[in-house]
């Protein structure tokens, strides 16, 4: 018989239908003469209840084996459930236990575990309700990302993970080869130990696919990346990972306004999609994690984001300087306490802050006419802080060369990037959305390590 997903049975199953399911036992209740097991296959938050009658072949040994955590296949008939909170259950006709889980040692017994504890069993934690809901919502977010861009004719481009450039110029690069090739003359290449220096020079894990996305946008107009990025920043916070996923759209013939409009429409689309497709999981987060996530999501979908300039933001924040650990003044970068103050307290919705001082932003951002600010924009979200960082790019060759030099970088290293300004340059813009911060925002999860299956952060990467 064809195996069915538990979510489909819970939604559409009718009494008298024969079904086969496969999954892991979440709980077992022995009621003397019969027993209930609840089975979960990851397709939904809800378990399917299975009734085991004493008449089943080898009932006693079955009961011993079907503990929490064991893997089973059940074939039986659907019947209307007497139990509360469930419409339908399975009357088992045959049960096969694939693998037992010793109740003495299996760490996920039926009780609530702290997220800290669950991080120590990263290989098992996806079997819990909360992490299960997170990873289903994460999947829905990813689907919504592709849907949004594909519907608008954006090309998904695959930018490299190993690169030779530091896109953000912040020096937060993981080096791929530990061997500096610069001192070795080119003619001696054959002598070089390629196991130490594979690329004939320093190479890094990418911090952003933006520069390569710009290359592709200059051919395809509208593109986006969606892939892993890496930052060797020693930030042991609940918002930073050493390995995180980023979505980076890049649009030719687009300015800062167009960029902000797209980013706002994009976030609205993802929230709408997740509310529609994951209502049970979102309800779970609202009840168990943060009782404002659904209201927040509705707010994102229906209210316009606030838009202010950096200069206006500083003026607003200076009024509350007394309460900040780091008081603000024009020219300083916003800390997460300031970002959250704006989004959480002042506006109570996402805020798009634009036109930051040139000194605190990356070399590629377009210099404004005032020559003090650049056409940058960050989206600040309540509880998260910066969730999106973007800008209109500097499309003027001479200005870009000056900016690169001013930041102590070598224009020769970026010859190919500068070529984009030599041959058919156009105004263009894009942004990066931190995917894990988005999932955190969506679910209300407090720590970014709990929204990615295998978190990497300083001094922790278990396997
Ligand atoms: O603001 P960032 O550094 O911008 C860029 O990388 C640009 N090249 C993007 C672009 O214009 N194409 O990073 C973008 C976003 C941040 O707003 C944040 O959400 C996320 O990436 N991010 C991180 N997320 C988790 N852990 C970290 N260490 C992160 N660093 C940045
Ligand atoms: Mg940023």
TrEMBL record:
GO terms for biological process: asparaginyl-tRNA aminoacylation. Keywords: Aminoacyl-tRNA synthetase, ATP-binding, Cytoplasm, Ligase, Nucleotide-binding, Protein biosynthesis. One of its GO terms (cellular component) is cytoplasm. Residues 135-453 form the Aminoacyl-transfer RNA synthetases class-II family profile domain. It is found in: Cytoplasm. PROSITE patterns: AA_TRNA_LIGASE_II. It comes from the Bacteria. Its EC number is 6.1.1.22. It catalyses: tRNA(Asn) + L-asparagine + ATP = L-asparaginyl-tRNA(Asn) + AMP + diphosphate + H(+). One of its GO terms (molecular function) is asparagine-tRNA ligase activity. SUPFAM superfamilies: Class II aaRS and biotin synthetases, Nucleic acid-binding proteins. InterPro entries: Aa-tRNA-synt_II (IPR004364), aa-tRNA-synth_II (IPR006195), aa-tRNA-synth_II/BPL/LPL (IPR045864), Asn-tRNA-ligase (IPR004522), Asp/Asn-tRNA-synth_IIb (IPR002312), NA-bd_OB-fold (IPR012340), NA-bd_OB_tRNA (IPR004365). Belongs to the class-II aminoacyl-tRNA synthetase family. Homodimer. This is Asparagine--tRNA ligase. It comes from Chroogloeocystis siderophila 5.2 s.c.1.
């Amino acid at each position: 018989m064809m195996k069915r997903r538990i979510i489909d049975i819970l939604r559409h199953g009718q009494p008298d239908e024969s079904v086969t399911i496969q999954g892991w036992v979440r709980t077992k209740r022995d009621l003397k003469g019969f027993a209930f097991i609840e089975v979960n296959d990851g397709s939904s938050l809800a378990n399917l209840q299975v009734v085991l009658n004493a008449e089943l072949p080898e009932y006693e040994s079955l009961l011993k084996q079907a503990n929490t955590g064991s893997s089973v296949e059940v074939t039986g008939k659907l019947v209307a459930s007497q139990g509360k909170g469930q419409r339908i259950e399975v009357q088992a006709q045959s049960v096969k236990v694939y693998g037992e889980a010793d109740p003495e040692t299996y760490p996920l017994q039926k009780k609530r575990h702290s997220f800290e504890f669950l991080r120590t069993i990263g290989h098992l934690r996806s079997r819990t309700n909360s992490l299960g809901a997170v990873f289903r919502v994460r999947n829905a977010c990813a689907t919504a990302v592709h849907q949004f861009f594909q519907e608008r004719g954006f090309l998904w481009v695959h930018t490299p993970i190993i690169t030779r450039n530091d896109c953000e110029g912040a020096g937060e690069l993981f080096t791929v080869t530990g061997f500096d090739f610069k001192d070795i003359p080119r003619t001696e290449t054959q002598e070089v130990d390629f196991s130490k220096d594979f690329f004939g020079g320093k190479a890094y894990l990418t911090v952003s696919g933006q520069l390569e996305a710009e290359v592709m946008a200059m051919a395809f107009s509208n593109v986006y990346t969606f892939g892993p990025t890496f930052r060797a920043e020693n930030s042991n916070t609940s918002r930073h990972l050493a390995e995180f996923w980023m979505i980076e759209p890049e649009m030719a013939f687009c300015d800062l306004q167009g960029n902000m409009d797209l980013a706002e429409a994009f976030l609205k689309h993802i929230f709408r999609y997740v509310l529609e497709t994951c209502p049970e999981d979102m309800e779970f987060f609202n009840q168990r994690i943060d009782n404002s996530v659904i209201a927040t999501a509705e707010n994102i979908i229906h209210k316009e984001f606030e838009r202010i300039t950096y200069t206006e933001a500083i003026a607003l924040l200076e009024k509350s300087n007394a309460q900040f650990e780091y008081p603000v003044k024009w020219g300083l970068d916003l800390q997460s306490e300031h970002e959250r103050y704006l989004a959480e307290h002042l506006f109570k919705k996402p805020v798009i802050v634009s036109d930051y001082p040139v000194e605190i932003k990356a070399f590629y951002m377009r210099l404004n006419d005032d020559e003090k600010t650049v056409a940058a924009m960050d989206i600040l979200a309540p509880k998260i802080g910066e969730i999106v960082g973007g800008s209109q790019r500097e499309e003027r060759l001479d200005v870009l060369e000056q900016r690169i030099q001013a930041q102590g970088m070598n224009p020769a290293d970026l010859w190919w990037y500068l070529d984009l300004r030599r041959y058919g340059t156009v105004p263009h813009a894009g942004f990066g959305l931190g995917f894990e911060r988005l999932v955190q925002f969506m679910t209300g999860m407090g720590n970014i390590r709990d929204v990615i299956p295998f978190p990497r952060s300083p001094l922790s990467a278990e396997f």
